[in-house]
């Protein structure tokens, strides 16, 4: 916190270079814009600038800035380094601060006095007069920075402020004080919670939304309109039928959808009045919440939003918590401000004491001793002062410093709590120990059952401890009867937990798990991750595994695959403690299946996802009726297909078909048919692919109710799209377009953006085969908008290669090639290798249009290598025609003719009349043999559905001219 200017000195106001330093208002500006600078470096800059050109020794600076606190010289060096970073001052060629080796520092920049403006940003908002608070001392600079951030937010500049400090430093007190002084704002608060596995995704944000919805009945309607994925996580705000519809609509969306929806929600909500979000204890945060903070901080549009987040600085630095990396990253880009709270100085301790006792405040020895014993941590200053005052009433008049002598000198801050623990009777200690095992917040009913007490007795003790306003308080996060009590400070719970004997902790965790399990069965909101943690620490690994599996599955439903991976990785080692048998196999299948699905979202289609699915697949023989077998087989089949491991995919499809014959589960049949159809299509076997797909169509209706268990997108859309492609290759172009339209209609009926993206994806493949670049460009744009709205990340690269293909035919061949190639490489990096030969064919076509025969030949060679290595022949006839075109541009007519004949032979081997039509058309266009023209005429007569295509019209014109 900022200290007062040196005794007798006016607040400093100077200009140096393009910087302006205003000590009275705790501001450093550059070019009129405020810079973010922590309190300690700011005070150090003021001390140096007050004596320009003079050497200030290290001791003098330590005394001026840190006062009576004992700190090492390394702290001074760190503060100097922070200053130089903000001032862009190179220590090897300093312009502002010069180092005098082994002695100190000198301020060398020329200075000039200046009168600064009173405000840097427009402040339509003025903090209201805050009520007097006897426990609030100092923090004026920190409070002022929060007020200025709020003023900026009220004016439309979104702001993020970190409030950092150690346990007991007063972070919550500062935030409470700040909140009490703002008017006309919506305020929502959420807390991160320790001891809950890896943390429920978005826990503090969901808590804040729930808090906001209780005070604003209009919020659910706004959630329904712009943030349905968030509405789905707050089930009490919508009826069951609406939740079912939302689940169908949101099938297949990715985690990015939740980020974008929240950004839009907050922007719209804050249009009517500014919004303050407060998230406490971010050092316990889940990954998803941090990702959301990062996303919102980087949004560029204006918003009347201030997000204040508190965390323990030393804890995030020591543990390398993701918060630490995020704060540094955002500070580099000036997207956040950090308020770091220091302990009280002796002067502030004296001010605090004066509010309770003028006599004690006037005793310098007492104030010094109190500061020394507490290290100036406000929480412990208050605790020891309260104890001294209580002892003074008991022992009568005594000199102030003598009253303090009765309080032991702890070796560390936790020892103070130990002293207070020793004064509790055994029943209170046992109750608080049980409460500490429950967490920061707890129910009287839970600790009663855990300790074997009557509920009335436990509730009376909790109430008495809360009235004493030291150990407990009424919960501020939930006003219901479910969690009415909370520890007054996290350090209290931490010390209580650590002071409980390990064997006793094990018993208490097991009892807590049993109590919460009963409450969950009765319909109470108890997170599965919380139960898993209690049973794991209660040494009941089997029960813990069940709940870890539930928690991991819930994380996927919350679109948080990262949390799912963390939960699964926490659970898998527990399998070793289980006996071999059906239950172990079943849990292993569940965990490995969920890990495979989450890995696809987080890491793509690499070996991690494949190995996870295969671990589950290897156990399926031991549990053939497992409820996730459809999800497992479809997921593994999809991964193998995307990795272009076609033979393994076909083997899996055969097993799915065999299981279907035993169980008649329609989801298994759809999996088998989808994988067979997709692989046979890619291998250039359209008739076989069509047979498999048409075999699945009667099972679609029966599988509709189970679709969510087996497919990421609705199976109807997927199968209809594949059927369209097969029909097209068979020359049934009208049927192909009809199937595509059916797929679109089905996706729209299901209100599934991901399914609609899939239908458009396949329609674009048809239009590329017809050569309609304007239609492909329009489809790519539609696909991009939908995939962005649904956060359907798998579609981003296809959008780019479709755009590139169209761009190449619109006169920008080089630009189109670059776009196609970049999308291909991005897809490959994700492990999505399927269809690579066709995409490289698009790239070769683009370079051919640019007149770059050599470059086109290189792309074509890579495509043909993929055909050879993977047997991916679906696009081979078109690649042969490309080879012919390249040879023709080079003037090699013989090579060109040979390549066209290869395309014709491949088309006939595939029994693909459409490809045969293209090959004959190319042959007749450049080699006018009468027999081949007759073959073309015969084929045209056999393809009435293709009569309206550009290629058929061109063929008829060529035959007429001949």
UniProtKB/TrEMBL annotation:
<protein>
    <submittedName>
        <fullName>AAA family ATPase</fullName>
    </submittedName>
</protein>
<feature type="domain" description="OmpR/PhoB-type">
    <location>
        <begin position="11"/>
        <end position="109"/>
    </location>
</feature>
<dbReference type="InterPro" id="IPR016032">
    <property type="entry name" value="Sig_transdc_resp-reg_C-effctor"/>
</dbReference>
<dbReference type="InterPro" id="IPR036388">
    <property type="entry name" value="WH-like_DNA-bd_sf"/>
</dbReference>
<dbReference type="GO" id="GO:0005737">
    <property type="term" value="C:cytoplasm"/>
</dbReference>
<dbReference type="GO" id="GO:0000160">
    <property type="term" value="P:phosphorelay signal transduction system"/>
</dbReference>
<keyword id="KW-0238">DNA-binding</keyword>
<dbReference type="GO" id="GO:0004016">
    <property type="term" value="F:adenylate cyclase activity"/>
</dbReference>
<dbReference type="InterPro" id="IPR001867">
    <property type="entry name" value="OmpR/PhoB-type_DNA-bd"/>
</dbReference>
<feature type="DNA-binding region" description="OmpR/PhoB-type">
    <location>
        <begin position="11"/>
        <end position="109"/>
    </location>
</feature>
<keyword id="KW-0067">ATP-binding</keyword>
<dbReference type="GO" id="GO:0006355">
    <property type="term" value="P:regulation of DNA-templated transcription"/>
</dbReference>
<dbReference type="Pfam" id="PF13191">
    <property type="entry name" value="AAA_16"/>
</dbReference>
<dbReference type="InterPro" id="IPR041664">
    <property type="entry name" value="AAA_16"/>
</dbReference>
<keyword id="KW-0547">Nucleotide-binding</keyword>
<dbReference type="InterPro" id="IPR027417">
    <property type="entry name" value="P-loop_NTPase"/>
</dbReference>
<dbReference type="GO" id="GO:0003677">
    <property type="term" value="F:DNA binding"/>
</dbReference>
<dbReference type="InterPro" id="IPR011990">
    <property type="entry name" value="TPR-like_helical_dom_sf"/>
</dbReference>
<dbReference type="Pfam" id="PF00486">
    <property type="entry name" value="Trans_reg_C"/>
</dbReference>
<dbReference type="GO" id="GO:0005524">
    <property type="term" value="F:ATP binding"/>
</dbReference>
């Amino acid at each position: 916190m900022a200290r007062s200017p040196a005794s007798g000195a006016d607040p400093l106001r100077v200009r140096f270079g393009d910087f302006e330093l205003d000590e009275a208002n705790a501001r450093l500006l550059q070019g009129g814009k405020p810079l973010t600078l922590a309190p300690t470096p700011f005070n150090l800059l003021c001390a140096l600038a007050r004596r320009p050109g003079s050497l200030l020794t290290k001791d003098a600076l330590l005394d001026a800035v840190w006062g009576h606190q004992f700190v090492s010289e390394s702290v001074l060096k760190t503060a100097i380094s922070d200053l130089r970073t903000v001032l862009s001052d190179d220590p090897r060629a300093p312009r502002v601060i010069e180092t005098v080796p082994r002695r100190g520092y000198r301020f060398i920049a020329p200075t000039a006095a200046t009168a600064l403006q009173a405000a840097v940003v427009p402040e339509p908002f003025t903090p209201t007069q805050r009520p007097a608070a006897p426990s609030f001392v100092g923090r004026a600079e920190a409070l002022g920075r929060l007020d200025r951030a709020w003023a900026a937010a009220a004016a439309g500049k979104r702001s993020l402020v970190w409030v950092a400090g150690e346990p007991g430093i007063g972070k919550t007190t500062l935030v409470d004080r700040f909140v009490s002084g703002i008017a006309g704002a919506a305020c929502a608060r959420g807390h991160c919670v320790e001891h809950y596995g890896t943390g429920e995704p978005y826990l503090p944000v969901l808590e804040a939304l729930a808090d906001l919805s209780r005070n604003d009945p209009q919020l659910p309607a706004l959630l329904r309109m712009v943030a349905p994925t968030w509405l789905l996580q707050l089930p009490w705000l919508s009826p069951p039928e609406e939740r079912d519809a939302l689940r169908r609509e949101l099938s297949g969306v990715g985690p990015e959808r939740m980020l974008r929806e929240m950004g839009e929600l907050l922007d719209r909500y804050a249009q009517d009045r500014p919004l303050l979000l407060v998230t406490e204890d971010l050092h316990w945060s889940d990954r998803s919440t941090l990702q959301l903070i990062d996303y919102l901080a980087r949004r560029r549009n204006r918003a009347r939003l201030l997000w204040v987040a508190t965390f323990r600085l030393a804890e995030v630095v020591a543990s390398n918590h993701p918060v630490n990396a995020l704060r540094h990253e955002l500070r580099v880009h000036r997207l956040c401000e950090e308020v770091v709270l220091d302990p009280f100085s002796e002067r502030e301790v004296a001010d605090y004491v004066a509010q309770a006792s003028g006599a004690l405040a006037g005793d310098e020895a007492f104030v010094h001793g109190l500061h020394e014993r507490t290290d100036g941590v406000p929480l412990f200053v208050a605790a020891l002062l309260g104890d001294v005052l209580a002892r003074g009433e008991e022992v009568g008049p005594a000199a102030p410093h003598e009253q303090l002598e009765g309080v032991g000198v702890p070796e560390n801050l936790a020892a103070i709590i130990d002293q207070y623990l020793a004064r509790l009777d055994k029943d209170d200690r046992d109750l608080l120990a049980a409460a500490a095992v429950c967490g920061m917040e707890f129910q009287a009913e839970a600790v009663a059952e855990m300790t074997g007490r009557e509920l009335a007795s436990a509730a009376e003790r909790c109430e008495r401890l809360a009235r004493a306003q030291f150990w407990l308080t009424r919960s501020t996060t939930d006003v219901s009867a479910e969690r009415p009590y909370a520890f007054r400070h996290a350090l209290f719970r931490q010390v209580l937990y650590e002071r409980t004997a390990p064997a006793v902790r094990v018993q208490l965790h097991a009892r807590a798990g049993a109590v919460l399990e009963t409450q969950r069965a009765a319909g109470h909101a108890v997170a599965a991750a919380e139960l898993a943690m209690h049973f794991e620490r209660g040494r009941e690994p089997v029960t813990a595994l069940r709940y870890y599996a539930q928690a991991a599955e819930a994380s996927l439903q919350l679109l948080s695959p990262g949390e799912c991976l963390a939960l699964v990785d926490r659970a898998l080692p527990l399998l070793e403690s289980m006996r071999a048998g059906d239950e172990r196999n079943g849990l292993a299948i569940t965990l490995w299946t969920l890990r495979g699905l989450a890995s696809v979202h987080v890491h793509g289609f690499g070996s991690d996802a494949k190995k996870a699915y295969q671990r589950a697949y290897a156990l399926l023989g031991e549990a053939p009726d497992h409820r996730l077998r459809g999800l497992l087989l479809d997921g593994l089949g999809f991964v193998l297909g995307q990795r272009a491991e076609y033979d393994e995919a076909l083997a899996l499809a055969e097993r799915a078909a065999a299981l279907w014959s035993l169980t008649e589960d329609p989801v298994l049949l759809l999996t088998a048919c989808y994988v067979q159809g997709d692989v046979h299509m890619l291998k250039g076997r359209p008739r076989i692919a069509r047979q498999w797909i048409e075999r699945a169509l009667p099972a679609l209706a029966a599988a509709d109710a189970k679709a969510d268990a087996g497919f990421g997108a609705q199976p109807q859309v997927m199968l209809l799209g594949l059927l369209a492609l097969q029909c097209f290759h068979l020359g049934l172009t009208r049927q192909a377009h009809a199937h595509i339209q059916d797929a679109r209609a089905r996706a729209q009926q299901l209100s599934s953006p991901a399914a609609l993206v899939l239908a458009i994806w396949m329609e674009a493949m048809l239009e590329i085969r017809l050569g309609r670049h304007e239609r492909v460009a329009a489809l790519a744009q539609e696909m991009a908008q939908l995939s962005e709205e649904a956060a359907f990340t798998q579609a981003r690269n296809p959008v780019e290669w479709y755009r590139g293909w169209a761009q190449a035919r619109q006169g920008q061949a080089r630009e189109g090639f670059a776009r196609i190639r970049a999308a291909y490489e991005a897809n490959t990096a994700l492990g999505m290798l399927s269809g690579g030969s066709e995409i490289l064919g698009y790239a070769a076509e683009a370079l051919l249009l640019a007149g770059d025969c050599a470059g086109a030949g290189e792309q074509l060679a890579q495509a043909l290598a993929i055909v050879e290595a993977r047997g991916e022949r679906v696009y081979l006839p078109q690649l042969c025609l490309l080879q012919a075109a390249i040879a023709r541009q080079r003037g090699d007519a013989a090579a060109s003719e040979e390549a066209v004949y290869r395309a014709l032979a491949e088309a006939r081997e595939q029994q693909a009349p459409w490809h045969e039509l293209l090959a004959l058309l190319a042959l007749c266009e450049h080699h006018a043999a009468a027999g081949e023209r007759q073959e073309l005429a015969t084929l045209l007569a056999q393809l009435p559905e293709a009569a309206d295509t550009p290629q058929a019209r061109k063929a008829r014109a060529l035959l007429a001219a001949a």
